[in-house]
């Protein structure tokens, strides 16, 4: 699923996918039966009693994060349970959604020779891996130089909470830790209304193996972080570290809340050092605890999302996990949001328009203890789609922007590994395995063939920051659970210290011109910390050379 939140209608017509139209009568195929009931810490017994009074059953309890898995029936179950003073929030066991990537395909000529930036000469002259010339993003943050000096160590574990990781991809397999990887989801062929969600299951019991990604998003993220230096394709920011797949996303790109909570707690338990979270919590783009336009049941759900994710984040961080998140692709000042037209976004067709304000949170980007990343185009400007905000943007990193220059060029996006079967299914390669457009690249250096795809989004920016954090842990971490340990507060401090500061543009009201329309984003803050770039652009070279 690719949902792009942008007020630029012309841009949306070029790069966004169309929405489904709901049928006139929408009734769930089966009633919802499972709920996450978050209780005040120390109030488990009272919450269990509330579930029973509402006619439900407490199936299990997660004492780490303070919630019950409860079975209930009837439209009033959530509200009956939520009325008890011991209960903080109640959410159906439903999805969360990532801050989506954007396919880097356009209707114009996007061949390497036609691309204004970078050009074909740079593709052929740049040293490094075979496709290094296409990695303007790595040059922007000095990762091409840092690879040789501080590639990272196998003692550092980077968890990718996403749609999965293609652990058999030739340009990921050497750094993929299959033993520690987990799949926390079971594919769902249909949604609550009986409409296609994931489609037919590929594996027994609808449970994919830990080295499978049927979407491609998670593989792209993992590749940016840690594709090895092996003479094939590309190199990631930290090509020496290990990737742990913490799959919480369905084949369709949708996520469910409980698998995401499980992924975060598991990361903390096994000693993962850095986690990348390229997602936002759905079904609400903005989670509001007390929005008057929402029903009581909807308010309870949003409170559960805010509370549950914060508890999971706190749990992981207290156990040494540095948490990094994509900021979002809504082209929105998160410090002053006005309207939410996308929520609730699941099941599709339930959306409504509502007024929002700064009390409403984009989760996990605005959760406490999370490093949030805005996206940049190849010129260094904030990408047109990237969310921003003086309080919300912590650092910035290349995420791609096909519109950053004259016309539209796929090569202005981020190139990283892609699963071959996903490209075949989406029609991006032909029957002979040849790419159909410049958004897909095939490399067969040394006789081994592998595929790569250009994508753009804050989802692509976040893993650059995660890779730099992994370099810092590799250099300054001490022996501990999982290999090395470095306190998240220290990693964060070093990440900010090594970032290249970048001031707001002049004038601060930056005007994007897109197909005859304009969009103005107001950058607030000083050079050392502002709404477009945060503390600066992450810098792998400085991370590789900074003194403690």
UniProtKB/TrEMBL annotation:
<feature type="active site" description="Charge relay system">
    <location>
        <position position="459"/>
    </location>
</feature>
<dbReference type="Pfam" id="PF00082">
    <property type="entry name" value="Peptidase_S8"/>
</dbReference>
<feature type="region of interest" description="Disordered">
    <location>
        <begin position="332"/>
        <end position="355"/>
    </location>
</feature>
<keyword id="KW-0720">Serine protease</keyword>
<feature type="region of interest" description="Disordered">
    <location>
        <begin position="98"/>
        <end position="126"/>
    </location>
</feature>
<keyword id="KW-0732">Signal</keyword>
<feature type="domain" description="Peptidase S8/S53">
    <location>
        <begin position="154"/>
        <end position="506"/>
    </location>
</feature>
<feature type="signal peptide">
    <location>
        <begin position="1"/>
        <end position="26"/>
    </location>
</feature>
<comment type="similarity">
    <text>Belongs to the peptidase S8 family.</text>
</comment>
<dbReference type="InterPro" id="IPR036852">
    <property type="entry name" value="Peptidase_S8/S53_dom_sf"/>
</dbReference>
<dbReference type="InterPro" id="IPR015500">
    <property type="entry name" value="Peptidase_S8_subtilisin-rel"/>
</dbReference>
<feature type="active site" description="Charge relay system">
    <location>
        <position position="162"/>
    </location>
</feature>
<dbReference type="InterPro" id="IPR023827">
    <property type="entry name" value="Peptidase_S8_Asp-AS"/>
</dbReference>
<dbReference type="InterPro" id="IPR050131">
    <property type="entry name" value="Peptidase_S8_subtilisin-like"/>
</dbReference>
<keyword id="KW-0645">Protease</keyword>
<dbReference type="InterPro" id="IPR023828">
    <property type="entry name" value="Peptidase_S8_Ser-AS"/>
</dbReference>
<dbReference type="InterPro" id="IPR022398">
    <property type="entry name" value="Peptidase_S8_His-AS"/>
</dbReference>
<feature type="active site" description="Charge relay system">
    <location>
        <position position="217"/>
    </location>
</feature>
<dbReference type="InterPro" id="IPR000209">
    <property type="entry name" value="Peptidase_S8/S53_dom"/>
</dbReference>
<keyword id="KW-0378">Hydrolase</keyword>
<protein>
    <submittedName>
        <fullName>S8 family serine peptidase</fullName>
    </submittedName>
</protein>
